Amino acid sequence: MSLTPNLADYASFTSSFSWEKEKSGLSGLPNGQGLNIAHEAIDRHAAGPLKEKVSFRFIQQDRSVMDCSYHDFMELTNRFANVLGEIGITKGDRVFSFLGRIPELYFTAFGTLKKVAVFCPLFNVFGPEPIFQRISRGDGKVLVTTKDLFEKKVRQLLERLPELKCVLLTDTDKDESERIRSLPRLMEQASDEFTVPPTDPEDPALLHFTSGTTGLPKGALHVHQAVLVHYATGKYVLDFHPDDIYWCTADPGWVTGTSYGIISPLVNGVTNIVDEEEFDATRWYSILEEQKVNVWYTAPTAIRRLMRMNIIPKEQYKLENLRLVLSVGEPLNPEAVTWGEKAFGMPILDNWWQTETGGIMIANFRSMPVRPGSMGKPLPGVEAAIAEVTEEDFNIITEPDKGGHLVLKRGWPSMFRTYLHDEERYHKSFKGDWYITGDLAKRDADGYFWFVGRADDIIKTSGHMVGPFEVESALMAHPAVAEAAVIGKPDQMIGELVKAFIVLKPHYNADDQQKQDITGFARKKLGPAVAPKEISFVESLPKTRSGKILRRLLKARELGLPEGDTSTLEQA
Ligand code: AMP
Hints:
Keywords: Acetylation, ATP-binding, Ligase, Nucleotide-binding. With 572 residues, the chain is α/β, with parallel strands linked by helices. It is built from 18 helices and 30 strands. It is globular.
């Protein structure tokens, strides 16, 4: 299908772009009462010609399909906002979800935003420890979850979470207590009418936890104004056109699944497909076919798995509606970009962003020639650069093809506003007007950006950020573990796998039984997405003289690479 791209010419569009002008695509709350994400995504459409249009199409595990119009979704989210009022939630309170991709997750998100409370989604394969860390650091007041997830992973934490006022269970009809209540019952009793209160564009809206190299997860806080970026990137990168059927495969437990799996498509008034199931190549191809998907946003790990199947999907499935395939989350191999040509008849368009940026910042736009392996060019309205950064110095590198830190000029609307309870760390991530992303990259002479690597020890596994410290802390709780260090080991399929080096306490055996025991322990505590996939027992860990584990050195040794500067090494 040849539809003219919304952004037809990058250079001229960028030179005349302004965020102020983009605001005309949003409505704002009635009577100039501010800007609220949920109003932009749902209520304004429900009050106009899109009223009966499908907002969400939920594909359940058994493949049955449930459609929800913009109008129905307005009523559901109104009810949930009223439920929050009923249980005493007010502006700024944090509402957590711990759910699979079921309708409750989606109406919880928008109902929370309507109430001007802050929505924080948790990945449903987390184990109890990551859940505890996030709810306690985020001062969670409410958690929405299922009975099964609650029993397996949350009940055991309740005593340690005294601030958590209420748990709403999605699949029970009876309240267990004042604290553990039935969501369906409360929804039934609640009114389906709700007026979104005045919302300042700077009011907090979303809290996303992301991993740090040191310390526990960082809570990046975003405000309602971020919706301007969700809107603009939907229009110019995902190239939404009014009749589009769109599918984002990311889970809302990660930022892509929220910004682009919940908000951006609805703000742009398109139909959003949600699949409850995990990756399954045949299922995915048949969803693309049956649902006549036009725009598909997925991730490198999934694309590599599809490539392995050795079929040409466009020959076996009717994919003629597909206009755009995009990828984010990890580097997209050049072979994958060109495989897209063969598989779908179009290159796969890579783009770059991160939790802190709230929305896509660098992209291969549909109208632009693609350079396989490159992340593309900055979003209009976003200034990106490569810089030399040290404790004392900051210099923008203007020479092309020279590696350095990827930095962004402060001021785009979806920029995170703080790390919750960690202002100092927030300020440290800026040098003057520039935000230091933590990634290393290069820019070529034509302005395309190329990813080089992380500047820190953070692990990207199947597109998910894992902080080594969080894993090490959990391992240390095992009775046999004296010390632990965790690295990302390159893996062809999932990008990096989590590998742990462990020093055992005296008298514990370094054998396979021990490995299995520690692996089982870690999976239970952290969940399978975060727990180490490989364990090696070692006599000692390389450390600096100040006692910091040199993960970089462990990684170099593991990969047989040069060890680099070891002058601070205390012991080998
Ligand atoms: P997250 O905050 O979990 O979304 O992870 C963001 C990080 O993922 C970035 O800082 C990069 O390290 C990595 N990342 C995201 N998109 C890309 C991409 N297109 N190419 C390379 N790395 C990426």
